Amino acid sequence: MADLLFGLDLPAAVSPGYDPVASALRAEGLGYDFVSTSDHPCGDQPTNETWTMLSWVAARTSRIRIATRVLGVPYRAPAMVAKMAETLDRLSGGRLILGLGGGYSDEEFRAFGLDVPTPREKVDGLSETIQIAHGLWSTPRFSLDGRRYRVREADLEPKPPRPIPVWLGTYGNRALSLTGAAADGWIPSLGSAAPERIPAMRERILAAAAQTGRPADALTCVYNLGIRVDGRASTDPSLLSGSAERLAERLVEFVELGFTGFNFQPAGPDRDEQVDRIAHEVIPLVRQAVAGRPARGGVD
């Protein structure tokens, strides 16, 4: 089995005492593989802009990978995102994971004066964004005349020296098929994709990958979930809580569903303690439990 990936959520919140750089450095020192931040620029709670904050984090860290979880495509011109991604990936030493999504909140689009795309238009835009990024990263004078986005004779230099991984946070049938056909990873959230839904969603991804001639292990599959090491179980379906042993058992069950990575969102006011406990008490148990297992065909 491929090595498991363990990531840590970096809140975009602007709040007293919270420093995203310090949190990322803590994660790096504890051996987490990546940090990630969601993308909700509009709201009544103070937040940092995702790309700017992660650029600041990348400049202060050295090993840990940096993931957008996930950029709302309608907020930014796709060709500019491709340029931004090339620059951040190169300056960070190849540590960027470009997570993309169709855009969750229609209210945010309205508030920022943006058109509100339909669900079909969101998937079309996501598909065209991937095409534009891959085209600009690999070919000179790239053009695309899409339904949502267009580029004409565009050239992006320098080209990335390595393929920048694109992960999608997707749930609907068309978006899942797009993930299998065009993405490098899938990062659904527990609250939006419960474990009992995963097999059918995963099968759709695999079918699309097979139709385009991609191997079954072409995608990284990461479950985004709230977590708390605690003696009490939670009734929140988007949160795992319990003893370290019970949490490890649940995560191994998710590995058996085809996940080979997790992005943790520690819950509760004692965030730093939780980050430490997950690293020291939970992750080693998961690694030990899955060590030596044969690789499972499918999203990996």
Automatic annotation (TrEMBL):
Domain Luciferase-like, first and last residues per copy:
21-224
Indicate the transmembrane segments per the record.
none
Which UniProt keywords are listed? Flavoprotein, FMN, Monooxygenase, Oxidoreductase
Answer yes or no on keyword Oxidoreductase: yes
Origin superkingdom: Bacteria
Q: Which InterPro entries does this UniProt record tie to the protein? A: Luciferase-like_dom, Luciferase-like_sf, SsuD_RutA_monooxygenase
- The identity of this protein, by name, is LLM class flavin-dependent oxidoreductase
Q: What is the lineage of its organism?
A: Bacteria, Bacillati, Actinomycetota, Actinomycetes, Micromonosporales
